[in-house]
UniProtKB/TrEMBL annotation, chain B:
Transmembrane segments: none annotated. InterPro entries: Bact_solute-bd_prot1, SBP. This is ABC transporter substrate-binding protein. Keywords: Signal, Transport. Residues 1-19 form the signal peptide. GO terms for cellular component: cell envelope. Its main location: other. Belongs to the bacterial solute-binding protein 1 family. It comes from Ureibacillus yapensis. The keyword Transport applies. SUPFAM superfamilies: Periplasmic binding protein-like II. It is found in: Cell envelope.
Length: 271, 451, 314
């Protein structure tokens, strides 16, 4: 499986160009995070580079606490989503019962409820449950995900039905089959969904802002928001450094997840 | 591999349960700590919701800290709640529950909705009970926040719009940098000189921002809403005349046609960056930005009064910004403690620190006599202009400002109309549509209140 | 979670009354299905369907600032909305936006995925880069692009001027603003779409390609005849999700244009947010939300009816 050198060069060329274009905005932000606000605002080349912006960002609010909260919230949501949506997807693919398709449409329909539209009723529910400023208030509403169910359903469908029949003959129950066969076989999708769930919950902004009133369970995106002002001139250097601090953990996760993902992929779990 | 995956999955499960448990633990632990501290020191906790981000938050936090360390009976917790409208939405939902704060900071156009909400205690009650003298505060600011002689909220961060200009660009164009244009007509002429001397620079930028439009209206002595800007009765339609309203649109149109107008849309940050980069010579913006603009500009910045049409006399500006509200249904001690904090915020020393640290006005004019302020003015004499403009304002219903709960929507309508003209649209069409929508919004708001 | 499944041992076939057993089994599978779905259904009920019904209810009323109903107006909110030119503009912009973003995102992501699917040295690095936009929050990404689009000091206009072209008011010109927001959105969604498509590509059996190679098939023939059909379940998923996401775009609008200039980027979810958070008109906001819900629902049903048939499952 070797390709001719000319083709290789073409591929590397295309890859590099695409990578540059895709990564340029983040790269610019990275450079800006070391720049002085005066240079940024006047659009000149950086006169000096320093860590001042990062120091300022750390001084403005309890960043480490926010980061920890973000981790707790994002991991809890990820795990909740993986469990709930894999269970639901299993039912949609391997169990044949009356009203299944209708229920599936009902699930899909939930994806169409724009979150911004239901945010205020949801906030009232959290308030009535006494979950304001609590981790459950930040996490439980996001455990059930039609998106995740849909993703896993599409993947589970690629698992041959014969496998289920064989296991049934071997006397394997549904839950056992789900746990011992389906989950391991679909681990690529689970990792994908996990990464997606983690990143989207890490990046949530409006809901954590609304459902918290003080610093105890606040997440890091709110910190990023606090760096911005409404009536005064924004200190873009500090804002960019905040943005960089916020995306570093997700970048690390993606890098590690990428390896995990590839490992899962190359082992060829799906046939 | 499968086994390995399964165990890791089970591990994850375990983590969920642990996380769930620990969340309960941490929240219960939190209350314990609070209970303990109130037992030993018996400090009255005041929860203060605010919307100050960035530099404003820094200044506010330092004031709160010095208040907390100045005495040992009250502990103020300043908590950021997002922008004003996000904070208000949250407040509306939790009002009347334990999660509600002791006091909240809200923008000036939210004044009417706060009063209507029935969730606040007018601070007049505390003024009367305490015999506190409000007459020492800045007259124009007091005018906005008093209604029929009653104070509903305590003014806090206040600002007005001013005109910023690039002195170097003025010199290069042969204009007098110490005599900036004061009328719409003078600005049109100055623009031409500037563009002629430097084709890469535009003359003037007006952010499509409803607040600025309201100010340009008030400066002509025009009302935004009828019934004296809603101060003598519930408004039923717009308060300005066609001549007053259109003068602003025609002025903008003239500059657009001349090719001297810089369009930054609704984005204030972009406009300031354009000014600092030397792409535009003049722009209107809140006085709260003055420190930042002066500090960041690589050239000398001038600050001037808000312009007005030649045939109208200057009336002055309406106060903008936000005030502090006392929340109803809280224990008396908590409200009293919050009142103490509000009074502390009005002291000249605190106001001086606030004014110099942020660019917002001092609510208490005595602050201008403080040494910190004098030093700042010696260094940046332009800052004085912002205060002068406020103090030169003539008191009237027009400059007192409008009160109505649909003002945020009204701003958006005017912004859209301005943008139409910026992009080459006709004045008549843009203006008429806007007036129609503005009146419809007033009608809708009145209907929604069920009155 | 850990409860043992009571249905496990019941699969042997008894000889008596075949019909009733069959019916019993049907009830059992239904119960089992419900058991698997229960946690999701419960949460959906509380956090999605209940708010949805509440939204429907609110859409027939006017409300005060606290969101409490004040006056029953029947269909007035809907009628007023359909008569409003602002709402028409909003619908038009929303559909244009979907048209701009969905095909472009998928084509670019597919291109990147095909590139990154080659077994080359250091490909992991490129894959990470391509996935990276997924890790950048809407707030951070919008702030990056706000600067790139800046009329005078922005990077993009800088390049335009360098090659001798007129600079463009990306976020202030009504002709360009929607495109600028679309570009930002495409960039933001690229990472995730890429990742899913790459996953799909990797799960295609390499045996298919090997046999095609033996037949001497060209690169594009393989792409058209093997890659795309085999990828169809993944593509179907990606298209559905991208469309729904495009309809629900919010954060980047808030930061980049706030619905302007002249409402050209006032996409429907942003319009709902404004009505609720700024204007306190929960009634009209709810009516708009219901209309949006119905539109996406219809589009998705059509998509499932047409699409699911063409999708190739192994």
């Amino acid at each position: 499986m070797t390709m001719p050198i000319s083709k290789k060069i073409l591929f590397y060329f295309l890859l590099s160009i695409s990578a540059l274009v895709v990564f340029a905005p983040a790269l610019l932000a990275f450079v800006m995070s070391f720049m002085d606000n005066k240079d940024i605002m006047t659009g000149s080349l950086p006169q000096s580079l320093s860590f001042d912006n990062y120091i300022k960002a750390f001084e403005q609010f309890p960043l480490l606490k926010y980061l920890l909260n973000s981790f707790i919230v994002a991991i809890a949501i990820t795990i909740g989503q993986l469990i709930l949506s894999s269970l639901a997807a299993y039912a949609f693919v391997f169990l044949e019962f009356k009203g299944r398709d209708l229920l599936f449409f009902l699930f899909i329909a939930t994806m169409m409820v724009p979150f911004e539209a239901s945010i205020i009723p949801n906030f009232h529910i959290i308030r009535d449950l006494g979950w304001i400023d609590q981790y459950p208030g930040l996490t439980v509403p996001f455990f059930a995900t039609a998106f995740g169910t849909f993703l896993l359903r599409q993947n589970f469908k690629q698992i041959p039905k014969e496998l289920r029949e064989a296991s049934q003959i071997a006397g394997m129950g549904d839950f056992k089959f789900y746990l011992k066969v389906v989950l391991p076989v679909a681990k690529t999708s689970l990792v994908t969904l996990g990464a997606y769930g983690f990143l989207t919950s890490w990046n949530m902004y409006l809901w954590p802002l609304l459902s918290t009133t003080n610093d105890t369970v606040r997440t890091v995106q709110i910190g990023l928001k606090q760096l911005q002002t409404q009536e005064q001139l924004n200190d873009w250097g500090v804002i960019m450094s905040g943005a960089i601090i916020v995306i570093i953990p997700t970048m690390i996760l993606l890098f590690l997840g990428q390896k995990q993902l590839q490992k899962g992929l190359t082992e060829g779990a799906i046939k | 591999m499968r086994k390995h995956f399964l165990t890791s999955f089970m591990m994850l499960l375990l983590v969920v349960f642990l996380a769930a448990c620990s969340s309960n633990e941490s929240s219960s632990g939190e209350t314990e700590v609070e209970a303990e501290s109130s037992d030993t020191k018996e400090k009255q906790v005041v929860t203060f919701w605010h919307s100050m981000g960035g530099a404003g938050q820094e200044a506010l936090n330092s004031i709160v800290e010095s208040f907390n360390s100045s005495q040992d009976e009250i502990q103020v917790n300043a908590e950021y709640q997002g922008e004003y409208d996000e904070s208000l939405t949250k407040f509306n939902a939790v009002a009347g529950t334990d999660s509600a704060p002791s006091m909240i900071q809200t923008f000036e156009i939210g004044t009417k909705s706060m009063i209507n909400s029935g969730q606040i205690t007018p601070i007049q009650e505390f003024i009367d009970a305490d015999g506190y003298d409000m007459s020492g505060l800045e007259e124009n600011i007091v005018n906005y926040y008093s209604l029929d002689g009653t104070f509903y909220s305590m003014p806090f961060n206040s600002s007005t719009p001013v005109m910023y200009y690039n002195k170097e660009a003025f010199e290069a164009a042969g204009l007098d940098p110490e005599a900036p244009p004061a009328t719409f007509e003078e600005i049109i002429e100055a623009n031409k000189a500037i563009v002629e001397s430097n084709p890469d620079m535009k003359g003037f930028a007006l952010q499509a921002y409803g607040w600025l439009w309201e100010q340009l209206l008030a400066n002509q002595g025009a009302l935004l809403l009828n019934n004296d800007n809603g101060r003598t009765g519930t408004p039923t339609e717009i308060g300005w005349t066609e001549e007053e309203g259109k003068s602003i649109f025609n002025w903008v149109k003239q500059m657009v046609d001349d090719g001297t107008f810089a369009n930054y849309g609704t984005n204030g940050d972009n406009m300031m960056a354009g000014f600092l980069a030397g792409d535009v010579a003049m722009f209107l913006q809140s006085s709260a930005s003055s420190r930042d603009v002066i500090d960041n500009a690589p050239f000398e910045v001038g600050i001037a009064y808000l312009p007005h049409p030649e045939d109208k006399e200057r009336q002055g500006v309406v106060i903008g910004g936000a005030s502090l509200w006392m929340i109803d249904g809280k224990p008396e001690e908590e409200q009293k403690a919050a009142w103490e904090f509000m009074k502390y915020l009005q002291t000249p020393e605190v106001q001086a620190e606030w004014h110099v640290g942020t660019g917002y006005f001092a609510i208490n004019p005595a602050a201008y006599e403080e040494q910190t302020v004098k030093d700042a003015y010696a260094e940046k004499p332009q800052l004085q202009v912002t205060v002068n403009q406020l103090q030169d304002t003539k008191a009237s219903y027009a400059t007192q400002g409008a009160l109505m709960d649909m003002l945020p929507e009204g701003r958006k309508i005017m912004e859209t109309a301005l943008e139409k003209v910026y992009n080459g649209g006709e004045v008549d069409e843009a203006y008429n549509t806007a007036v129609e929508q503005f009146n419809a919004a007033i009608e809708q708001a009145n209907a929604a209140r069920g009155e | 979670m850990n409860m043992s499944n009571p249905m496990i041992e019941s699969t042997e076939i008894p000889e008596i009354n075949y019909e009733s057993v069959k019916r019993k089994q049907r009830i059992r599978t239904f119960a089992k299905g419900m058991l698997f779905l229960l946690p999701s259904l419960l949460l959906f009920g509380v956090f999605l369907f209940y708010p949805l019904f509440k939204t429907l209810y609110l859409s027939f009323f006017l409300t005060n600032a606290r969101g409490e109903t004040t006056v029953f107006v029947g269909l007035q909110n809907y009628l007023g909305m359909f008569a409003s030119p602002i709402f028409h503009q909003s619908m038009k912009s929303t559909f244009l936006f979907v048209l701009y973003t969905v095909p472009t995102t998928i084509i670019i992501a597919l291109f990147l995925a095909v590139l990154a699917n080659e077994k080359l040295k250091g490909i992991g690095f490129f894959r990470t880069i391509f996935t990276s936009t997924m890790g950048i929050s809407v707030a951070a990404a919008s702030v990056f692009w706000l600067y790139l689009f800046h009329p005078s000091i922005g990077f993009i206009n800088g390049i335009l001027e360098m090659i001798g072209m007129e600079s463009i008011g990306w976020l202030t010109d009504p002709k360009w603003a929607l495109i600028a927001v679309a570009v930002t959105t495409i960039w933001m969604n690229l990472g995730f779409t890429f990742l899913v498509l790459l996953g799909g590509l990797q799960s295609i059996d390499s045996y298919l390609y090997e046999s095609a190679d033996i037949d001497g098939a060209s690169y594009f023939y393989k792409l058209r005849r093997i890659t795309i059909p085999m990828l169809s379940p993944t593509l179907f998923f990606v298209i559905t999700v991208t469309i729904i996401n495009a309809f629900q775009t919010f954060g980047q609008i808030d930061i980049l244009t706030q619905g302007g200039p002249q409402n050209t980027t006032n996409l429907i979810v942003y319009s709902i947010y404004r009505e609720a958070f700024t204007n306190y008109q929960f009634g009209t906001a709810s009516a708009q939300a219901i209309v949006l819900f119905v539109i996406i629902l219809i589009m998705t049903i059509i998509q499932f009816k047409l699409g699911e048939r063409k999708v190739h499952y192994q």
